[in-house]
Design goal:
Chains A, B: InterPro entries: Homeodomain-like_sf (IPR009057), HTH-type_TetR-like_transc_reg (IPR050109), HTH_TetR (IPR001647), MT1864/Rv1816-like_C (IPR025996), Tet_transcr_reg_TetR-rel_C_sf (IPR036271). The structure is a homodimer. Chain A contains ten helices and no strands. By secondary structure, the first copy, chain A, is mainly alpha-helical. At the A-B interface, helix 5, helix 6, helix 7, helix 8 and helix 9 of A face helix 5, helix 6, helix 7, helix 8 and helix 9 of B. The structure holds a DNA duplex.
DNA sequence: GTGGCGAAGTTAGCGTTGCTCACATAAGTT
DNA sequence: AACTTATGTGAGCAACGCTAACTTCGCCAC
């Protein structure tokens, strides 16, 4: 059958199905997605796909995400991903890992900015969580909203990262309570705080506050929760 | 071109793509989905489709939901829904309305069971919310997790129902605080409580507590939050 | 009853998706 | 230079959402 189009779509690779007005100002080469020059092999297709999926998820929402679209953006055929990932869910799992890592960093940074342990530092932690969600709404939705479809019992890495995030909170609550090492009370309060902040993030992202017709000041809410829930020492 | 199969798949309509082990014990006729007898017209296809979608969502999760599957379950062709609904999202919106109505009833009932206003009644409200979510995990996910894709500016009904739910909570918090009519403080605290309870629901349903490796007693958490957040009078 | 009309079904088919196959190419090792 | 192996390609499958054109049947006027 020979070869109809030997080195495929030449160079311009950023054509994610619809025009995407002006979207990324990537040049002809060197953009994060496209293959290097006109090479047959991509270089790092796995990461390029994850990045493409991420930008598509942020641009159009999870529900409109298609792997085909990401392939178009990366400038490869729609069969290429399966050399690197088992299936669609596997790609999303890789994206999740990226996200959990970033979230953890963001929280650690925020905590370090507050000198002493206590409600204020916990509030800062919560605000960092919320800020990350608002800055990466699509990714956040994938990270926390697709557990059922992405769940893979063999994938321990993702769990470990998520657990590490939890440990940060528990440690901080323990420090605020003066428990060292953090005990049962710290554990319980950490869960309550995470639950609250996560609720704020999801309700914000999903537009549920608006839908319910209420106006909220999420930062004020976090401050209030942190100070009322964590008893003063 | 004549008629190949005049009254289509005779009677047995419960064949939603895969066997569905034992699933619904519906008889040959009279099940909630299938058309009445072998009639060409269904009777109430709109409701039957919503019901079918609901059971599929609960059985397989939102991500695996297909309208075709619901059609198979209702015993109609895959083009039939579009006589009643604009598109897929329209069907899901109808399902959401059903859910919000039920949720509201559940909360109202739970509140009525506690004699006096106060933290205990608020906790009961929250537990009812959580219980509804746990009893209808798929539906709950659709109701709150698909705002972006289901959003329709012309659909005011759904918003009204969601707002009505919020008003219940605000009124109860107002009563607990002794504010009548409920003021700004009641409003803010109601948002905080909803946020917390909603967070508990989503983290539970998505399996995030498990993923993070923590064990939680959600009822105890709700009690704690209600009592610490709502100041004693 | 009869006839016509419109609502609510039908089949056929389009374009897209996720994924698999057999094959082509390039990179690296010997 | 030859062989091996990782990584790409195109063709093609079944399923999906949705449209178009046609058929069936309930209902209402007469």
């Amino acid at each position: 059958m020979a070869k109809k189009i030997p080195p495929p779509p030449s160079g311009a690779a950023a054509d994610p199905s619809d025009p995407a007005p002006g979207a990324g100002g990537e040049g002809r080469f060197g953009c994060a997605f496209s293959r290097r020059r006109n090479r047959y092999h991509h270089g790092d297709l796995a990461q390029a796909l994850v990045t493409a999926v991420r930008t598509l998820v942020e641009r159009d929402g999870v529900e409109k995400l298609s792997i085909s679209g990401a392939c178009r953006m990366a400038g490869v055929s729609s069969a290429a991903p399966y050399k690197h990932f088992r299936d669609r869910a596997d790609i999303l799992r890789a994206l999740c890992r990226e996200g959990f890592g970033e979230l953890r960093e963001a929280m650690a940074t925020a905590a370090a900015a507050i000198p002493a342990p206590g409600p204020d530092r916990l509030a800062a932690l919560g605000k960092a969580y919320l800020a990350y969600a608002e800055a990466n709404p699509g990714l956040f939705g994938v990270m926390f909203g697709m557990k059922r479809e992405l769940h893979d019992p063999e994938d321990t890495r993702t769990h470990e990262i998520a657990h590490a995030n939890m440990l940060i909170v528990i440690a901080e609550v323990g420090a605020a309570l003066g428990e060292d090492p953090p005990g049962e009370e710290a554990h319980r309060l950490a869960c309550v705080l995470w639950t609250f902040v996560h609720g704020a993030a999801t309700l914000t992202l999903d537009g549920d506050y608006e839908a319910a017709g209420v106006e909220v000041d999420t930062h004020a809410m976090i401050d209030l929760a942190a100070h009322r829930l964590v008893p003063a020492r």
